[in-house]
Amino acid sequence: MGKKKVLVVGGTGYLGQHLLQAYYASSSSSDTNGNGVSSFDLAFTHHSTPPPKLLLHAIPGSIPFQVDLKTGVGFESISNAFGQPDVVVNCAAMSVPRACETDPDTAHAINVPSALVNWLQSFKEKSSLLIHLSTDQVYEGEKSFYKEEDIAIPVNVYGKTKVAAEQFISENYSNYAILRSSIIYGPQTVSPVPKSLPIQWMDGVLAKGEEVQFFHDEFRCPIFVKDLVNMILALTRLWMSEDKQIQLLLNTGGPDRVSRVQMAEAVAQFRGYDTSKIKSVSASSVDRGVKSPSDISMDITRLVQTLKIHPVSFKDGVRLTLEAEAKN
């Protein structure tokens, strides 16, 4: 039995970096010289060049590949230098809703992983498991606690491209787990990502002691990044141990339905900031250049029953995030 091969598509992004570190740590042992050795062979794709040195240093032995997800250029290099992966986790996406609205063609080309699926189908051996990150924004947002069987009626281009991706995968590939993720939050990555992270951003603005406006009428079920990573590791182990077909669609969120106001209050309460500085406003009062669903909270019963993982409460996730930031 050789090492199992794992490919993280979008490995330099927020979730991708956390995942690579977890795959490496979950299976590392030490060689005779005391160096860490992973029982997974790890590879990751990146779009910009070169891949960050801090990430490469944190995951020794991982192989970076530059890939254009729109055209598929670069996948052949993975075939030649790495071979067929046992598991592929697709974290890559054009995920800023306003950017998708401005350039729907590019959003569709990146978010519908046709080049990735076609490449995986080129292998003649047993199929790889594709774990694909989708979004809670496939839902219309007109009720609370959506279930997986509820009809997906996205209200913006981003959501529409993610529905198209789910349909493409389920119609064209035999082994997959599609994870409809909510807002992902948690500690910064080993090679810091340029985008602002939700808890850290809220902490930064609230620390100034000035009044800040937050929406009271948009609801999500944010998920702590380490919980999401553990779910993906659990799916990986399930696939590698049971050797049977997997076709899963899972709502992937935390247990709490919260508004932006409630998120900010949780940060303020942990830090001891003045919560009276948090001003509640309606989402309709701000033009964000894109329609946003009001309530896309999700029922995660199927997730918990399938993977036997109970995600942490939002309050605990905030504490874990800010404690980790303090250590860094």
From TrEMBL:
It comes from Arachis hypogaea (Peanut). It holds the Pfam family RmlD_sub_bind. This is RmlD-like substrate binding domain-containing protein. Residues 5-324 form the RmlD-like substrate binding domain. Coiled coil: none annotated.
